[in-house]
Design brief:
Length: about 325
């Protein structure tokens, strides 16, 4: 089985590393010092489930040198997906399956727009991991899990094959009856926590303890739930209550990756998370005032982070 991993951060580095360590023909698509270190020293993964090193490791910054593969796991930041879809065209053949493990609810449709709907399978993951440095990934928490499924809910041989390969690599795999529900369920959690965390600069313990920030968090979740239901995504009625119970179980010092990027002045997934809630709400006629406030409050810094603030303000 030939597998390509696009984006070797905490997600791609961990899951790709597990696949390669289990003997799958896995190629890492990386760049810069990260690529050079993986080529020279292998990929090091420190994990609460056991450390390992993939050495030698197949790695490149040029997808056209790989050839057609069986599976592609997209593990980049959500805002990178449209560009990545174009870059991986040389490795996508008639029988290639492409799965996004990115945050957000638009990655599958973005991939399908460039590559065709027939090659795209829905997916998401759960893990706390991050890039420590070049060639070095740390899995710090959560029992890693990948959820995959055909858009529309049908069973397929390709989903079964990927599940088998991931399972053989020691990765827990879930194949839900409706992948759209699973994707939106995670989105409701991560977009709300990321947005409220970023606008308040507070950790999970503070957000859930202060009545004011807790109400904001619940309000953001209820808006996402309403948008999803309006788009015929069958999120259960108790989704917000279940998600808040999960938030209450998290370590008090926890923060979301989008929140950390914004607090560090980096480009973030604001448009793919909070921005998507607002945009999709407008499309379907659902008001999202909490998410609109969060998006508006964070947008100036976001535009500054990727160098387009002057372009957006020049004509006003």
């Amino acid at each position: 089985m030939r597998i390509a991993i696009v984006g070797i951060g905490g997600v791609g580095g961990y899951f790709g590393g597990r696949l390669a360590n289990a003997g799958e023909e896995t190629t890492f698509i990386a760049r810069g010092d990260h690529l050079a270190t993986i080529r020279d020293q292998g990929l090091r993964v420190d994990s609460i489930l056991g450390d390992f090193v993939v050495n030698p490791a197949r790695a490149t910054d040029d997808p056209s040198t790989i050839g057609i593969v069986d599976f592609v796991l997209i593990c980049v930041k959500a805002w990178q997906v449209p560009d990545v879809a174009e870059q991986i065209k040389p490795i996508v053949g008639r029988n290639t399956t492409v799965v996004s493990l990115c945050n957000g609810v638009e990655a599958a449709s973005q991939l399908a727009a460039s590559l065709g709907e027939s090659c795209v399978v829905g997916g998401l993951c759960k893990i706390i991991s991050y890039k420590v440095g070049p060639g070095h990934i740390r899995h710090a928490g959560v029992n890693p899990e990948i959820t995959i499924g055909e858009i529309g809910g049908s069973e397929s041989d390709r989903v079964k094959r990927l599940r088998e390969r991931l399972t053989n690599a020691g990765i827990k795999v879930v194949v839900p009856p409706d992948i759209d529900v699973a994707i939106w369920d995670k989105f409701l959690f991560i977009a709300s926590l990321s947005g409220v965390g970023a606008v308040t600069r507070a950790n999970v313990g503070v957000l859930r303890s202060l009545p004011e920030s807790r109400r904001m968090l619940e309000g953001a979740m209820h808006e996402i739930h309403t948008v999803a239901r309006a788009r015929n995504v069958a999120l259960p009625e108790d989704t917000v209550e279940r998600t808040m119970a999960f938030v209450d179980s998290l370590p008090a010092d926890g923060t979301a990756s989008m929140q950390r990027d914004i607090m560090n002045g980096h480009r973030s997934e604001l448009d793919a998370q909070t921005g998507a809630v607002v945009r999709l709400g407008v499309d379907i006629g659902v008001s999202t005032p909490v998410n609109q406030f969060i998006y508006g409050a964070l947008l100036p810094q976001e535009l500054q982070a990727h160098g387009s603030l002057s372009e957006r303000t020049a004509i006003h």
